[in-house]
Amino acid sequence: MTTAQVSATEFADLMAELPAGVGVITTPGPDGPMGLAVTSLTAYTADPPSIMASVAHSSRCYRHLLGAERFGVHLLHNGQEPIAKVFASKADDKFAELEWSWDADVPRVHETLAYMRCRREAAFTHLDHTVLIGVIEHVRRAEGAEAMLYLRRRFKWRIS
Asked: What pTM does this model have?
C-alpha cells in the first residue's frame, strides 16, 4: 500500500493504536492566557534540553503561540482528564475553572505532573501544522503521580 492510498480516517485509526503522553501548551494571548491540548509532544535534544510539539494551524492560539517568545508545556497526570478535555475543547476561557499563575510571561497551570517554561527556538511549517521547538528554561516536577496517556481515542494512564 502506498501513502496515496491511505485515507485520513485509516491513518487516524492506525495512529490511535500508538499511546501518547498528554500535554497542554500555554501562551499569552491578547486578552489573557491561551492554551491547547497536545499528544504530539516529545523530547528533541538533551543539549540544550529541548522539546518538540506539532501545532495545528486551526488552533485558536496558534498565531499567538508562534508570536510569543516563550510558552509553557505541562505534562498531565492520570487524574487530570478534565483539564485535558477543556484544553482539547473550543471553550472561550480554558483557564476559568483552573488554578494557574503567570511564570514571567507564561501561563502556568498548577498541580500538573511537570511544567516547563520554554523559549521558542525554531518553528517549521509543513502543510497544516507547525513543528515548534522550545529550549527549556525552567522546570517543576511533581512526585508520585503517573503520566496520563491517550490510547484508542481514550484517556488512560495504564496500558493493559
From this structure: 0.89
